[in-house]
Amino acid sequence: xxxxxxxxxxxxxxxxxxxxxxxxxxxxxxxxxxxxxxxxxxxxxxxxxxxxxxxxxxxxxxxxxxxxxxxxxxxxxxxxxxxxxxxxxxxxxxxxxxxxxxxxxxxxxxxxxxxxxxxxxxxxxxxxxxxxxxxxxxxxxxxxxxxxxxxxxxxxxxxxxxxxxxxxxxxxxxxxxxxxxxxxxxxxxxx
Length: 191
What we know:
Elements: H1 6-95, H2 100-190
């Protein structure tokens, strides 16, 4: 003896299950889209960070080149000044033989002073270059750490996605079993 309400209930249950499956599929698709968007955003952030690092390195290189050029200009200026002093000294030596020793002393003092200034400038340039190298190393390390954190985040997102897909698959299996049990119960009730 069959129950006249049973096909309607079975049809409603089947429709509800199909609706739920369709909603789960839509949820999975939406989650997949969101995951892709997040991955894209993280890649964009990583590219921006790399671009900033490249810009900063370029600025540091430009600064180092400017310092090198300034050092060369100082050296040229020193040489020019020394040449001018020697020429001036030679003129005075030619004109005033009795002041030769005084001019030599003055020129030696000036030469010593200029060499000392040059040494100080070279030392300052080296110090600044070392600081720039240290800054570059620090930036390189920060970029590597950022890349590592990015990889960890991607791995966490992938794990979360796999876990969620597993849970959805388990839910689908459970729903199928429930539908099969209801279907068998309906078939048994009809017989």
